[in-house]
C-alpha cells in the first residue's frame, strides 16, 4: 500500500494473490489492508489536506503534468501489467494507458480554470463574492475492468481541485493500482496527497471511507448494487457522492442506416474489453428488412475473432475476470436459448487446450432476443450481442428507454431529423450517433437514472470535487 508517501505492508502483515485471468496463474501478492490501514490513510490524507488545499492551481498542475509525462514514458510497462492482470489485448491496454494519462493532462489544465464570480448586490455597501473550494478528503473506490484509467479519472480532478485522496482499487487488479501509484510517487506528490489501500475484502476499507467524518466525498465506479449500498451509507454523513454504475445500452439500427457499416461498428464496441464495459451495447435493435445483411456481417466478423492471451498477435478477445463472471454470461445465454433465441456464433465457454485454464467465453451473437429473456434487462458484462428484431420505428424510443439504467446508447441513421429525435428522446447520459467511441478526457462521462450520479472528465469533472462558498462583504 502507499500511505503518507511510503510503500508499506498491511497492519496485520496479511497479503493476497493477484491472478492472471488468462491462465489462472498467480502473478504476485499484495498487501491485504483492513480498517486500521484505511484509518491510517485517512489520517494522512486529512493532514495533507491542510497544506495541499492552500497550494496554487499552478503548483498542483505541475505535479499533474509530471505524472502525465512519467505515465506516457512508462506506457509499455503499465500496459504489460494490465494485460497480465486484467487480460485485455496489448493494443487495448496501450490505449487505456493513453486514456488514463489524458486525464492527468486535462485536469492539469482545468486546475487553472476554476473560476469564482462576483454578484451585484441590491445594497450599495455590499459585495458578493463566490469562491470555489476543494471539498476535502476523497474516498475513491475503483473497478477492475479499466483498472488504470478509472484511477486517474478520479484522482486527477480531485488533486487538481486541491483535495487529497484515498484509493481502494478492485481486488482483482491491485498490481495495476500499484503501477499507477508508482507514477504518482515518482511525480513527487507531497506525502498524504494520494494514498492507496489494497484489500481482498472491500468491506472494512469501504466502511471507513463511507463512515469516517473526515472523508467528505465518495467517488465510486462499479456495479449499481454496490453503488446503491455505498450511497445510502454515505447519506448518513451527508457526504458528496459521484457514482458511475451499471448500464444496459441500446444499439439502434434505423431503417435508413447501412446495415453493414452498423454491424462493423457494433463488433468494435461490443467486444471491446470482452464486453466488460458499462457502456457496452446490451440490446441491439435491428429492423426486420435489414436482419439478413446485418447478421451476415456480424457472423463474418465475430467468427474470425481470436481469443487468447493479450500478448499474442491478432488476439481481440481476452478472458473474463473470473469464474463468477463466466457463470453469469452462461446463465444469460442458456436462459435466452431456452426461451427461443438462436445462437449465430459462440454460445459456450472456450475449452480448447491452452485456454481452458483461463476464463474464456466465445464471442457470441444471439438472434431473436425478446423482452422475456434475462439478457434483455440484466447487464451482461461479457462478449454476447443480443439482437432484437423490430418492425415499426415509432416504438423504438419507448423500447430503448424501458430500462432502469441510463448510461450509454448508440444510434445508426443517415437521417438528420431522426438523429436529433433520438439524441433528444433517449434517456441516457452518453449518446453515440453513428459513433461507437463517444468518450474522451475532454467529454463528460456519466449516467442518468440508476446508472449514476455526477460526471467524470470534461469541465464537469472537477466540479465534483469543489464546494461553493459565498462571501458577503459590507464595506
Ligand atoms: P463488479 O461487480 O463489476 O466487480 P463491484 O461493484 O463489486 O463491481 O466492484 C467495484 C468496486 O467496488 C471494487 O473496488 C470493489 O472492491 C468495491 N466494492 C465491492 N463491494 C464493496 C463494499 N461492500 N464496500 C466498498 N467497496 C466495495
From TrEMBL:
InterPro entries in UniProt: Ald_DH/histidinol_DH, Ald_DH_C, Ald_DH_N, Aldehyde_DH_dom, Aldehyde_DH_Superfamily
Top-level division of the source organism's lineage: Bacteria
Keywords: Oxidoreductase
Record's keyword annotation contains Transport: no
Residues of the Aldehyde dehydrogenase domain: 7-469
Stated family: Belongs to the aldehyde dehydrogenase family.
Record-level Gene Ontology MF annotations: succinate-semialdehyde dehydrogenase (NAD+) activity
Protein name from the UniProt record: Succinate-semialdehyde dehydrogenase / glutarate-semialdehyde dehydrogenase
One of the GO BP terms on file: gamma-aminobutyric acid catabolic process
